[in-house]
From TrEMBL:
This is Alcohol dehydrogenase. The lineage of its organism: Bacteria, Pseudomonadati, Pseudomonadota, Alphaproteobacteria, Rhodobacterales. It comes from the Bacteria. Gene3D superfamilies: Medium-chain alcohol dehydrogenases, catalytic domain (3.90.180.10). Residues 10-342 form the Enoyl reductase (ER) domain. The keyword Disulfide bond does not apply. It holds the Pfam family ADH_zinc_N. It comes from Cribrihabitans marinus. InterPro entries: ADH-like_C (IPR013149), ADH-like_N (IPR013154), ADH_Zn_CS (IPR002328), ER (IPR020843), GroES-like_sf (IPR011032), NAD(P)-bd_dom_sf (IPR036291), Zn_alcohol_dh (IPR050129). PROSITE patterns: ADH_ZINC.
């Protein structure tokens, strides 16, 4: 099969032919229909993620068609079209039994702990536990975004912050996760303010229904959010993983506000200095989130099927596999609005 492999940090991916994968016990092989290019892939590409051992095929937000089924699989057969979360939980441990698959101690993460979906085919373990049918009306490029950005934002807003209708949501970072949080927040009845430093992203967010936008390059972003929301956001999500925006998100909250750290702190930002006086005096709630357990897919898909959520504006461009390296390098600087999804794996 054709694949794009990471063989050296910060270097163009190696477009090459590798052996087709085979399904292990409990696993399946998918023909990849679409795979997003995500900032988390960029973390792997830069060498900031300690789980990645070279060579590695990146790609963790994907959907595909089952082409081979391993022993022990009962829910899937060849020809089924499925969505996969990026955290593949074992389904057997105590954490999985309690519904906390995202902290499974035996989890597999495509593109990080095993080869991912920047390839024509991908082997997916724990298939019965993790895979969800791809709705017939959902384009593959939209479904691919569900596997990381949309699901992570959904878990942050519903499983962590428990965002309520009428509340103010402040989104720090207008990339894929940030735009997902904007679209989901609006569908849930919240008012949303988006913060970024790229004017094109803010214009894009406003077109998608943001009630207010803030350019953090032009002044105190936290103060601007407090002014726009009449005293501070009820909920803030940080979607970049850097200290500056994490601090601003905390300072943007009203008293008793809730903040969710979605962005992955890595490299120089793995350790941060945070204003704990703001946490204490404001009696804030600060939580982290990573991924979404697979059992939460039905609630998200119901929101989409009910016509309350249109994710089509999320995907800005579809690309061939040969352009994946360019998309990864673009994260070195403020990236263009919208999400890039690989849909052509032969070019």
């Amino acid at each position: 099969m054709r694949a794009a492999r990471l063989t050296a940090w910060r270097q163009p991916l190696d477009l090459t032919k590798v052996a087709d994968p085979a399904p292990g016990p409990g696993g399946v092989v998918l023909r990849v229909l679409a795979c997003g290019v995500c900032r988390s892939d960029w973390h792997a590409w830069t060498g900031a993620d300690p789980d990645v051992v070279l060579p590695m095929i990146p790609g963790h937000e994907f959907c595909g068609e089952v082409v081979a089924v391993g022993p022990g699989v009962t829910r899937w057969r060849e020809g089924d079209r499925v969505i996969a979360p990026f955290i593949l939980a074992c389904g057997r441990c105590a954490d999985c039994a309690a519904g906390h698959q995202t902290i499974c101690g035996d989890q597999a993460v495509p593109g990080f702990t095993l080869d991912g979906a920047f390839a024509e085919l991908i082997a997916v373990p724990y298939a019965d536990t993790n895979l969800t049918p791809l709705p017939e009306t959902m384009p593959p490029e939209i479904a691919a975004a569900l596997g990381c950005r949309v699901t992570t934002a959904w878990q942050a807003l519903t499983g962590r912050a428990r965002l309520q209708p009428g509340e103010w949501l402040a989104v720090f970072g207008g990339g894929g996760v940030g735009l997902s949080a904007l679209l989901l927040g609006r569908a849930m009845g919240a008012r949303v303010v988006v913060v970024d430093v790229v004017e094109d992203k803010l214009t894009h967010a406003a077109r998608l229904g943001a009630d207010a936008v803030v350019n953090a390059a032009q002044g105190d972003a936290a103060q601007a959010v407090r002014e726009a929301t009449g005293g501070g956001a009820d909920v803030a999500v940080e979607a970049l993983g850097i200290e500056e925006t994490t601090v601003a998100a905390m300072r943007s909250l009203r008293k008793l506000g809730r903040m969710v750290q979605i962005g992955m702190p890595a490299g120089d930002h793995a350790a941060m200095t945070l204003p704990m006086d703001v946490l204490y005096s404001g009696q804030l709630t600060l939580q982290g989130t990573r991924g979404m357990p697979s059992w939460r897919y039905p609630s998200l898909l119901s929101l989409i099927a009910g016509g309350q959520l249109d994710l089509s504006p999320l995907v800005d461009r579809t690309i061939p596999l040969s352009q994946a390296s360019d998309e990864l390098a673009a994260f070195d600087r403020p990236a263009p609005p919208g999400v890039a999804v690989i849909t052509d794996f032969l070019n």
